[in-house]
Every structure is written in C-alpha cells, then in structure tokens.
Amino acid sequence: MNALDSLIEALKRLPGVGQKSAQRMAYHLLQHDRPAVHRLADALTAAVERIHHCERCHTFSETSLCSVCADATRDARLLCVVETPADQAALERTGSYRGYYFVLLGRLSPLDGVSTRQIGAAELLQRAAESGVEEVILATSFTAEGEATAHVLAEALRARGVRSTRLARGVPVGSELEFVDLGTIAHALSDRR
Amino acid sequence: MNALDSLIEALKRLPGVGQKSAQRMAYHLLQHDRPAVHRLADALTAAVERIHHCERCHTFSETSLCSVCADATRDARLLCVVETPADQAALERTGSYRGYYFVLLGRLSPLDGVSTRQIGAAELLQRAAESGVEEVILATSFTAEGEATAHVLAEALRARGVRSTRLARGVPVGSELEFVDLGTIAHALSDRR
Ligand SMILES: [Zn+2]
Ligand SMILES: [Zn+2]
C-alpha cells in the first residue's frame, strides 16, 4: 500500500471518520498543513507513551495518581462513579462537585462482553469501603446499559452497607417543556424536589 | 500543556474536527484502540516524508513522476486540468479518461491570495504547449471560483493557440428533474447534445 492509502486507512480508525472524510483529511494535511502532520504524529506518540490510568480512580493520567486523587483538599466523603474520563471532565467543568471519582472506563454490556470485571467493579467496591466514604454517586448515563450498570453497582454497594445515590433525571436547563421527551418529563415529575 | 490536551489540540487541526469530536477521538484511541495510535502516528510521519508532488502534473506522488505521468500508454493528446488530487482520483475512478492530468492544487481566489502563480499556471501553459497536446479539458469545479479559474486559463490557452474545453454541466445521473436546481437544468438545456 502506498503512503497516501496507508494514511487514509489509519485516519479511518478514528471514530466517526469514514472513507470520504479520511481522504479529505489526508489531502488537506498534505496540501495545506504539513506542520500539523508532524505535530499530530508527535502528539499521538507522546499520548500513548505518557498517558496511563490513575491507579486509584482509573481515569487517564500521566502520573500514577491523577491530579484529583492527589488533591487532599477534596471531600473524601463523596465518591462519584462515571463511565468515562470525558464524563468526569464534564462534571469537573460544572465546578459544583468537590469529591473524588471512580471511572469505570465503560459500562456493563453483556452482549459486548463487558462484565463487572472490565469496569473494575471489585476495585470500586474496595475503594467505596475505605473509611471516610459516606456516599457513592452513581453518575452512569441514563441509557439502558448505564441504568443497568448503576443498578448492579447499587445492589453490590448496598450489600456492603455503602449508601449510593443517582444523579437526578430531569428537564435540561434552558429547555422548553414542549420539546422535552415525555420520559424525561415523567422522571422530572417523580424526582421533583 | 499535558499530553491529552496536546493530542486534542493536534486533532482539532484536522478539517471538520472541532473540540468535541477531537476529545471523543482522543478518548476513544486511548481507551479502546492504542494500536491505532501507533499506526496513525507512523502513517502520518511516513506520508509527510514520502509524499511529494509529481514534477510533471503536480499531483501527490512518492516518485518524481507519478504513475499516470510515467504511463507512456496514455493518450498524450488530452490534458485534463483539475483542482485537487481528490478530483483527479474521482476522474480516474470513472475509468472513462485515458489522457494525462495537470493538478492546480487550488483555484484562483484573489481574496485568499491565491494567484495564477500559486496554481502553477505558467507550468500548465508550458505543459499544454508541448507537441502532441491537442485539447486541454478544464475540469475545475462549477463554483464561482472554479469557473473564474477555468475562464482565465481558457483565455491564456487560447492566446497561445491551444484548444480548451470544459466538462459538460448537466443533470446528475440518477436524479429526478423535479429535485435538480434550476441553474443546473438551464445549463443542461443549453449544453444539450
Ligand atoms: Zn485518580
Ligand atoms: Zn504526474
């Protein structure tokens, strides 16, 4: 395979990139932005060499403990369980959570072979059992798989005497009720404060 | 900047990739497809090192003459002018053209500072003046800039006594007339055979 076709094939491994956009990307880089090619190649190599997982919360980290886990000023009573580092980043951006995290790096999906072992459930239970943890907030997504994951984890935590909560389901801020789906409205009603 | 943010920034240089998709790509690669990261880094480096421009037609090529220019069995009477290697690839895929090419690597765009020099107009005129060339097919796009480019090149070719033609404008194969824009229908009428 020639260098151009190899590049197009490699770009197609990026999520959401098909043959046409991979081709457009390759042509654009070669024609208009060769410095970006070097930068991207270096960034990819550096990322895969330097980014590992925090040994405590499993999020991406260049150090053995991530910056959140290493921050002793956070609220040790709260442990928030999310599916991905992206979800964690979203929660951090809200600025309204000061506890620690545990990142599952997935969600239970028996059909795809994702079991409690893959999401680190045992490590989570161990982490949640540490003295000081008073509440585990299950912030998995509100999809069928995310809900099933939260359910399984809540049961396991309850069996060990650890209290867990779930994020409130409700109407997104800024939405007009008219355009919100009925299931969300129903949940917003039942979770009303 | 940490390795993750550097990677996200580098991915944002790809055309059509904003902050959100760059983030999704980075997370996906690091979490699910680390082998693809190495492959992409290597493909990028190899591409930028090995892919240059054909010295005769200016398309991407790993050799000083591209495979089309190096093919002596093609029809030397025809020279097709396209804007990009992607356009050339599309024409090649039709299997209905057997002449040679000249790739402008752009189109005239005075506002963006793209002049006749940037698109290699002088080299094109020299190439078109070679003995044996009987017709230059101007296959630039049917946009305002593509049409202007074709117009300027046609004038320059005519001044040198070289015949040029333009691809036929018309109704796309498989379209229902009802859904084709009026300008296209008008052109299809005037270009009717
Ligand atoms: Zn951590
Ligand atoms: Zn060539």
TrEMBL record, chains A, B:
Stretches assigned to the Toprim domain: 77-172
This protein's name: Recombination protein RecR
Record's keyword terms, sorted: DNA damage, DNA recombination, DNA repair, Metal-binding, Zinc, Zinc-finger
SUPFAM superfamilies: Recombination protein RecR
Pfam families (alphabetical): RecR_C (PF21175), RecR_HhH (PF21176), RecR_ZnF (PF02132), Toprim_4 (PF13662)
InterPro entries listed in its UniProt record: DNA_Rcmb_RecR (IPR000093), Rcmb_RecR (IPR023627), Rcmb_RecR_Znf (IPR015967), TOPRIM_dom (IPR006171), TOPRIM_RecR (IPR034137)
Residues spanning the signal sequence: none
Gene: recR
CDD domains in the record: TOPRIM_recR (cd01025)
Superkingdom of this protein's organism: Bacteria
Cytoplasm in keyword set: no
ZnF (C4-type) residues: 54-69
